[in-house]
Amino acid sequence: MENTFSVGLKHNIAPHQEFLLQGSILDSHKEVLLHRLRGLCDNAEKAPEPFYDHEMVFMLRGATAQQNPVLFRVRRSVEPRDDTSWHIRYLGTSEVGDKSRHTLVRACFDVACSNNVVQFLNEMGFKLDHEYCVKGYFFHKGRMKVTVSKIFRMAPSGGSDINTQEAMSHSHLVELSVVAPAGQEQIADDMKNFAEQLKPLIQLEKVDQKRLSVQ
Amino acid sequence: MAVPSVTVSVEPVIENKIQEVKLDGQEIYVAPLSMSENLTKLAHKIDFYKDESDEKGKPTSEGEKEEEDEKVLASFQPSLWPWDSVRNKLKAAFTEMCVLTDVLNIIKEKRYMVADPVSNEAPENKSSVLLLAKKRGLVVAANVLISGAERLKRSHSEHSNRAQNDYFIELLKLRQNWRLKKVGTSILGDLTYKSAGSRFLQSGTFEVTKVIEEKTDGDGSHSRGSLEVVIPSELEGVAYIQVDVKSVPGNILMPAGLGVIRSDAYWQQKLEVAQNVLFCKELFAQLAREAVQIKSSTPHMVVGNQIITNAFPGIQLSIVLCHYTGKEKKTPQAPQKLEHNHVLEHSLHQLLREVHYKNINYVPPHPVNAMLGMSKRRRLAGPLGTSRRELVEMNVRETLLEQIIKQTKHAVLRLRTMHVLDKLAILSDPQITAHWSCLNSSLECSVRINITTAGYEIVRSNSLVLIIEVDNIQAILLKDSKTITLSFEDKALQDLILWQVSQHHIQVVTHLAKCHSWTVISTNLNVGIGDIDVYGTATSIMMSSPRGDKVLSLKSGAYNKIQMFLKEVTSSELNNLSTAVVDPKWQKIMGTFKQIDVDRLQGKTFAQKVDMLMAKLSTMS
């Protein structure tokens, strides 16, 4: 299996790496975490920025059954309403087992697209695998992004009205991520230091995605 | 011993009779009689019907044969035999009591026997225990009191020790305003603007120290805390940026200095001044870097702590970083009055703060997966398919120096316009009024100019709007919505206004003609005959009186004086009429134009003069 980087480079897509740390916090303690993050991150004088996104995951199966399917994550902003720029993201597989790396590292290709991408992907052969809504708050410190969000199941009718959705769990997902060009390793140390400051409140760690998926 | 030994039981002699031996060897004893049963048994033995002398006692109870022997021995009291033990015991007790009485009597006599108190030790023992107990109790109580007293003493000493108290309160206040960090045993603070977005590399670390001084130090002019801050040496003193706009390149003024901050000033003042020094240094470093790097039409000069550049030809902008540390030798020259352009200095500070702000504040990406740090337009570049040229344009950012030069240019233009208008406003005829718009920015403002004559304000179609931009002035003539672009020379504006003034005169006259019912024969906005005007074109008007016998002709230009000509038919000419003229209307074309001296006409303003003239000419003849 060719390295996603080399494939990307061949086709002139900028090879970026995503460094990710994840953790979760119960709903009842979310306020404390928001307060803490507001103090640690940039722009402390502004209120935390809320966001509400709708993400659809499209899957394209390979010719043979053994090949792993290609997953495209299409995300759009529901509130504030932005129908002109949707976002496609492709995430490669992460290399686990490297104990010296504190964060999860995987290849990441980000593309901004227009709002007819769903039709396009359907015609290309992608099938909608699953979709969900994410609602939460967004912080940033330098180029580190921190999001505290709650995942909602879509209502069967397909509407993205927040009142008709049910939450998937009673906790919030906290993600600390940096997207940087390939080859910069000291970001992982910066992220780890930042995660240390949130330590007793929330444990941010790298989660092995393969162990989570049910196959 | 491993072998269990035979148990040997030691038992007392059985006192109880064996009643029965069971088949398995178990013995059942007769239960011993209780006291009452015993008494009953003995009482049964007493034969109350028998008197004492009757010795031949029949055995009253069974099994009492052995007591018959005893009966013989104690024959004088046979009835007491069952009570014998009782009697003996009583007798013994009586004996004892007698002995005791005798002993007590003897002791009382104190001749042969003395009773010594033997209970001395017991009370002694008791008191020591009591003493110990009391001592322990007292010790506990004393401890409680001592600890209480200690606490009171400590708090009292704290109150009296103000320096100690103050230090922590001052430290708390310091912490509320500045970022502090404890490194080892010392407390360090940060003066820089790094947390606000600055990328300047100079460090601004200050140290916080405790000051222990006597309370008798009476320096009551300002509050002296017990906390001192040590500022790094390169940030000592006072600094400011001086911006000066000069019209003639003159000598480089050396700043005489603003003054020095006292070494015993309050820490807040010291820190603020040091931070200002750092800010000014960063600002000047940025400007100097840009002045050297960017290529523009006019070269910039950087000399020491001064940047000199030309805003307009003949207008010089100089930015000086004045840093007065207090260690320089006092210059003998008298301190000069420094020209500060406070508005531009403030603008410089604001511009740098904006740069800091942009460094920190990113537009939050929606959806949050998108890249951080791009503006919204840049994010839409993909979906909307913007061209390369547009992308390049999006990325172009103006430098600080360019921005401040633009602001300077606009300020200069604005000032010049004001001067021109003020100069022209001295003219009383006509009145020039300027209304400056209150909505303006540092790069653009607008003013509306009205030209009216006092008393005849109804004629006000001559207005113009000036929009003062960075490099030029846009003039909009509202009469016909023509737009003229003026350069930065103030003469151009003056010419334009004077030209409009000249046109206004003719307009007033046109209006007056309507009022006096004079007929306007012709008007010409650009007269091609006569002297060429210095600027613009001359306007002329020719009108005739209601009767038609008088014709008035005016010509006005921007810089030339107004010329007035009057044509009327004199009586002498009337008489010389030829007989070929049959219709009196042909008299009207006779006559020559004579010039009228406008200055000698009556009236304060030109409009008044013309008004008066027309009235007179109408009524005459």
From TrEMBL, chain A:
Q: Which PANTHER family match?
A: MEDIATOR OF RNA POLYMERASE II TRANSCRIPTION SUBUNIT 18, MEDIATOR OF RNA POLYMERASE II TRANSCRIPTION, SUBUNIT 18
* Role of this protein: Component of the Mediator complex, a coactivator involved in the regulated transcription of nearly all RNA polymerase II-dependent genes. Mediator functions as a bridge to convey information from gene-specific regulatory proteins to the basal RNA polymerase II transcription machinery. Mediator is recruited to promoters by direct interactions with regulatory proteins and serves as a scaffold for the assembly of a functional preinitiation complex with RNA polymerase II and the general transcription factors.
Provide the protein's localization. Answer: Nucleus
Q: Which Gene3D superfamilies match?
A: Hypothetical Protein Pfu-838710-001
Write out the similarity annotation. Belongs to the Mediator complex subunit 18 family.
GO terms, biological process: regulation of transcription by RNA polymerase II; termination of RNA polymerase II transcription
Q: What does the organism's lineage look like at the top?
A: Eukaryota, Metazoa, Spiralia, Lophotrochozoa, Mollusca
Q: What is the protein name for this chain?
A: Mediator of RNA polymerase II transcription subunit 18
Q: Main site of residence?
A: nucleus
Subunit info here reads: Component of the Mediator complex.
Q: Does the keyword Iron-sulfur apply?
A: no
Tell me one GO molecular function of this protein: transcription coregulator activity
Keywords assigned by UniProt, alphabetized:
Activator, Nucleus, Transcription, Transcription regulation
User: Which Pfam families does its entry note?
Assistant: Med18 (PF09637)
Provide the Gene Ontology terms for cellular component.
core mediator complex; mediator complex
From TrEMBL, chain B:
Q: Does the keyword Ribonucleoprotein apply?
A: no
Which InterPro entries does UniProt cross-reference here? Mediator_Med17
Q: Which GO terms describe its cellular component?
A: core mediator complex; mediator complex
Q: Which residues form a coiled coil?
A: none
Q: Name one GO biological process term.
A: regulation of transcription by RNA polymerase II
- UniProt subcellular location: Nucleus
List GO molecular-function terms, semicolon-separated. Answer: transcription coregulator activity
Record key words, sorted: Nucleus, Transcription, Transcription regulation
Give the similarity note: Belongs to the Mediator complex subunit 17 family.
List, alphabetically, the PANTHER family matched. MEDIATOR OF RNA POLYMERASE II TRANSCRIPTION SUBUNIT 17
The protein depicted here goes by the name Uncharacterized protein
Source organism per UniProt: Lottia gigantea
